[in-house]
Amino acid sequence: MAQYPAQLDGVFVALADPTRRAVVRRLGHGPTSVGDLAREFPMTLPSFMKHVRTLESNGLIRTVKSGRVRTCVLNRERLTLVDDWLAEQRRIWNERTDRLEQFVTDPEENRQ
């Protein structure tokens, strides 16, 4: 786990909340203003902004302010941290199940 920086912990913490996952999913369709995003959730704007700040501080989104409108953009590269970690876990478990399968299906070879 040492090869994965604390950034991965922050990404998982940010994605642990259903509202923040919904924001990430929504931003997967393209950039959206904070106001438009906030209308989709039953909470006050200040409460919604806490979710936006959490996503932004963990690098999952970027915000750009133009005049009075703040637009959120998904940082797809940050999601590769999760993808890489999951791929490594998948590889480790595949190797373990392959060794178990070999042990179970060919016990004679394993006695030597």
Keywords:
single chain, 112 residues, alpha+beta, three-stranded antiparallel beta sheet, 6 helices, 3 strands, 12% strand
Descriptive report:
- It is a single chain.
- With 112 residues, the protein is α+β, with helices and mostly antiparallel strands.
- The protein has helices spanning 6-15, 18-27, 34-39, 45-57, 76-105, 107-111, and strands at residues 32-33, 61-66, 69-74.
- Helix 1 crosses helix 5 (76-105) and helix 2 (18-27) crosses helix 4 (45-57).
- It is elongated.
Broad structural category: alpha+beta
Number of E-type strands: 3
Low-confidence stretches at least 5 residues in length (pLDDT < 50)? none
- Beta-strand residue fraction: 5-15%
The helix fraction, in percent, is 55-70%
The quaternary structure here is single chain
Mean pLDDT: 92
Reported for the largest beta sheet, the result is: 3 strands, antiparallel
| Strand order, sheet with most strands | 1-3-2
Overall spatial form: elongated
Q: C-alpha Rg, in Å?
A: 21 Å
SSE pattern, N- to C-terminal:
HHEHHEEHH
Straight-line distance between termini? 33 Å
Query: How many helical elements?
Result: 6
